Amino acid sequence: MPTPRSLFLSRSLAAAVLTLLVACTGCRRSRFPDVPAGYHEFAYVSNGDSNTVTVLDLVYLRQDRTLQVGSNPTGLAANPVRNEVYVVNTRSGTISVIDAESNRVVATIPVHRDPYFISVDSAGRRAYVANSGSNSVSVIDLDQRREVAVAGTGEQPGLARISPDNRTLVVTNRGSGSVSLYSIAPYDQSSPAHILQFRDAFSGCPGATDAVILPDSSKAFIACSAGHQVMAISLSAAPGSWAARQDPSLMDDHLLTLLDVGKTPVSLAMKPDGGEIFVSNFDSDSISEINPWTNEVGWTQPIGNKPSHGLVSRDNSTLWVSNFGADAIGVYSIDDGRVSASIHTGSRPDALAFSADEHLLLAADSHSGDVSILRTQDKAGPNLFTILPAGSSPNAIAVKAFRLKS
Known about the structure:
Blueprint: H1 4-24, E1 39-47, E2 52-57, E3 62-68, E4 73-78, E5 84-89, E6 94-99, E7 104-110, E8 115-120, E9 126-131, E10 136-141, E11 146-152, E12 157-162, E13 168-173, E14 178-184, E15 196-203, E16 208-213, E17 219-224, E18 229-234, H2 242-246, E19 254-260, E20 265-270, E21 277-281, E22 286-291, E23 296-302, E24 307-312, E25 318-323, E26 328-333, E27 338-344, E28 349-354, E29 360-365, E30 370-375, E31 383-389, E32 394-403
Antiparallel strand pairs: 1-2, 1-32, 2-3, 4-5, 5-6, 6-7, 8-9, 9-10, 10-11, 12-13, 13-14, 14-15, 16-17, 17-18, 18-19, 20-21, 21-22, 22-23, 24-25, 25-26, 26-27, 28-29, 29-30, 30-31
């Protein structure tokens, strides 16, 4: 139960934020790089308990509108090629398609029971949806806006991640504590029945949740969130590739090791160059660093109360961690090897996303129903810039930026 002091502080913060919102409404963001004419950038926030998506204008830093979608929206993904955003409606068993230029829902695609996560390939032509309630993964043709294939998985798949070379789909199965691997057929060589071909499965990862794949597509790392380990898997090399010619054993998928980290690892944040992976250990109040080339844990150290999500800057220098239990974002300097700041947010920050230029960091405050917007680059250091309203239980953020010709 909140104490009088915590209530006073919360009301004081709300009053300060409201004052700032009134002052900023309709104004371009100050002290940020200018944007060209016709430039648009929006953040889409799925609100699980209000069946809506909040659209935030990141140029003018204001709420643009609220869109009604299906029941219990969870996962979000932006198309990297076309101006579309996709929303997973878990209880409805559907995917909502948002046209980012008009910010309208333009299509609804049926999938299966309790979809939870969606990922879009680099060409923007296919999406993969993990259906937790039906133990399957759906393949969506985004040109036709319909499901074109479905494959069985382990129990309660939570995430489907595409390798950078677009050859492998990695699916984490929370219920069975396993990982399923599938080969993805090329666009011009695939009939619907052969788009996904089961390749291998690995057990022994209780509560398998988050996963990252190295930039060269050689390895996958999976958080075993019901325990205290991260699973490392070697992914098969492409036939005829240099790696396969040098070492024929690389033609097969195989388990490399299970790495001991903190308790309840829930999120993996990888440097864009693939040099390090950072694990958020929710019940140990810590982060662990993994060297993906040697498959070793380098260190584990405190970061804050209940870390739930991590994100690394494009220049590989800074790790941002949402401390769910501390109402704050922890800032870890990778180059210096230390926590450099803690920035207060709304209540229970969870999902994180950068703006396109990374001058802004957005945190979905799952309890207070808003989005904290942090300024990442400032002479005085990173700081809270403003808080914008969202809906009830915001749980994911996707950012889409584009330029329209006048």
